[in-house]
Amino acid sequence: MTDIKSMTLEELQAEMERLGEKKFRAGQLYTWMHGKLADRFDNMTDLSRGLREKLREQYELVRLELVRVQTSALDGTSKFLFRLPDGNVIESVLMRYSHGVSVCISSQVGCRMGCRFCASTLDGLERGLKPSEMLDQIYQIQKWAGERVHNVVVMGTGEPLDNYDALIRFLKLLTGEGGLHISQRNVTVSTCGIVPNMRRLADEKLQITLALSLHASSQEKRRTLMPVANKYGLEEVLDACRYYFERTGRRITFEYSLVGGVNDSDEDARELAALVGDLNCHVNLIPVNPIKERDYVQSDRTAILNFKNKLEKSKINVTIRREMGRDIDGACGQLRKSYMDTEKER
Asked: Catalytic annotation on 91?
């Protein structure tokens, strides 16, 4: 069946005409799906019974099933496990900040990028998510929380730029009129550094924030942590970052996970400052969230603060990411991984 929730308004208008319906019905349908967050055709009460019957017969209205919610006793962060229509499971996170509610969503079922410190990649890639499946993570969380989502981060399980076409359609549906209409400036998309698609994204001229998972100050060290570095060298990736800024005017965010004894030395800090010093950027230091399948440990507090101070002395804009959800499998892929492992044991 055709996935109707992934369609643009223009595509819906064409579908309505094909069904012998008035064109304006497309706007009503679009508002029900993306504004009122209806997940059943029968709830769309201003559509005729006949049209609703046609919709039920010919279209799939994607709706994710909530399997589990874990809420942190430390900071109120909630982590969600959703089941997709095909039975796969994905995870999403809701975080409350002073500036509003943020949701971090997955873009793929699993991941094939192989980053050494990430649980998302341990079982490989199953498939990319449809735009509707990305959207419905936000829709279901907003309904569950009873609060409007202000910020969206595509930084959960998966590599967003490895699911490029679906990502772009999702972004346009999320930020366009008639739906949640979240400002593009309130959306962040992360990447481990797929250079061709970073450049394609720049050419879209969206006003979203691009966050590069950097995690190392040299090509040699990055290669040991991130297999993608074997395909795209560090200079090539940074050139794509410069291109993104030139095309969009949007400052780049560099995500840097601090791993004790691996990439948190004074030399690493000096190298990083030299590497990104000429870029309009912000460095987000992330105390790594250890996973049992790897032997990486978090840098101690002194090393983290020292690293931050070294960057600041080089006039680098830097913050330490506030740790959230540590007591609820908060890191990418952890909840899904633990759920899948439990299911296999049954």
From this structure: yes
